[in-house]
Design a protein that fits this description.
27 strands, five-stranded mixed beta sheet, about 375 residues, six-stranded antiparallel beta sheet, Immunoglobulin-like
Length: about 375
């Protein structure tokens, strides 16, 4: 017949015997719970005495089996890895009973050493909100620079520049990374950027943890291009005429008599005028007129330079004058030059004007 701790046993066996028969483990607790890796915890076993001996397992392949214990009994223990572990207390004869619980072990909290933020970032990749304070350096194709700020982290990721093409199409450039630090990033702009006017670009940083910074403005300066403005893009306002051959920028007087006319395939504006040397004394008077032109560029293109030359076979060179001035050079966008000339019988001359323009590479000037 098996005996159990009950009121019957207490009545039949008396106080001492009942006390012996009722020795058993009742509960087991862990404090603190949850705990951290390598943190010492207190395991407490409670029940009825005299238990003499108990077995305690911690769920991590470790255990203790103390003898001659008196309940409640306490022992300390620490776990070396995060996880959830079963803790079991088992009574050993003449003690009986079993109790169990579980303990949750968490990763140890990071200890921030004394000092600056830089000390912390030596231990972990900074995960705060990145913030750009300023951009320092060149902001043009192939130009080096530095993004200054905070919370960029220790691992490189991406820096972009947002611009717009000359026609309004968005353009996003990825800058090359030379160096990456928590408070500054060394970058280099890509080469070969075309079709973009001078403008305020937006710089933005994305960290290795996916955090996106504010946008910081920087003035982008494109590579320049240079060319001679062709005559086909110049408006002929007026071409003066006399009694013989006249022409300006591809236009010729329809009543010309097939006489000599000098053209120019590389000029911006040009004119040629001729009077026959075989005229009567009654028609050898001086004829004067003016050739007028108009030119305009846009999209950040400007009039950069101007040169003028002429050829003649008579001495009336002083009668050939260009007016309108050159005050538009450099950096003007519109110019209306006019050339006033005068000739008499036998005069034959031509003039050539060259206007150099400059502007952002890949952007149309008209």
């Amino acid at each position: 017949m098996s005996l159990h701790c009950s009121s019957v046993v207490l009545c039949l066996c008396g106080t001492a015997l009942a006390h012996l028969l009722c020795a058993q483990v009742a509960t087991v607790t862990v404090s603190p719970n949850p705990a951290s890796v390598n943190q010492q915890t207190q395991i407490t076993v409670t029940g009825n005495n005299p238990c003499k001996k108990i077995d305690i397992t911690f769920g991590d392949s470790q255990s203790v089996s103390p003898n001659n214990v008196t309940l409640p009994y306490g022992v300390s223990h620490a776990w070396t890895s995060p996880g959830t572990y079963p803790v079991v207390a088992q009574g050993v004869s003449p003690c009986s009973g079993q109790a169990s619980t579980s303990v949750k072990i968490q990763s140890a909290p990071i200890s921030i050493p004394p000092g600056s933020l830089a000390n912390l970032c030596k231990m972990i990749d900074c995960t705060g909100q990145p913030h750009i304070k300023m951009y320092f350096g060149f902001s043009s194709p192939g130009g080096p620079g530095a993004v200054i700020g905070s919370w960029f982290g220790s691992k490189p990721n991406k820096v972009i520049a947002k611009l717009s093409k000359w026609d309004g199409t968005p353009e996003v450039l990825t800058l090359a990374i030379d160096e990456w630090h928590n408070t500054w990033i060394g970058v280099e702009w890509p080469t070969g950027i075309v079709g973009v006017r001078e403008q305020w670009a937006k710089i933005q940083v994305t960290t290795s943890t996916g955090q996106v910074s504010n946008e910081s403005s920087v003035l982008f300066v494109p590579d320049p291009d240079y060319m001679i403005l062709p005559a086909s893009d110049v408006q002929l306002v007026h071409c003066g005429t006399d009694t013989e051959a006249d022409g300006c920028n591809g236009w010729t007087d329809p009543d010309d008599e097939g006489a000599f006319f000098s053209g120019c395939s590389t000029c911006t504006f040009y004119g040629s005028h001729w009077r026959s040397p075989f005229c009567s004394p009654f028609c050898c008077y001086i004829v004067s007129d003016t050739d007028a032109f108009k030119m305009t560029v846009k999209n950040d293109w400007v009039l950069q330079s101007f040169s003028f030359e002429y050829v003649a076979n008579q001495e009336l060179l002083e009668s050939l004058q260009i007016v309108g001035g050159v005050s538009e050079f450099p950096y003007g966008t519109t110019w209306q030059p006019s050339v006033t000339w005068a000739d008499e019988c036998g005069d034959d001359y031509a003039y050539y004007g060259y206007v150099g323009i400059s502007g952002p590479k890949g952007v149309p000037y008209k």
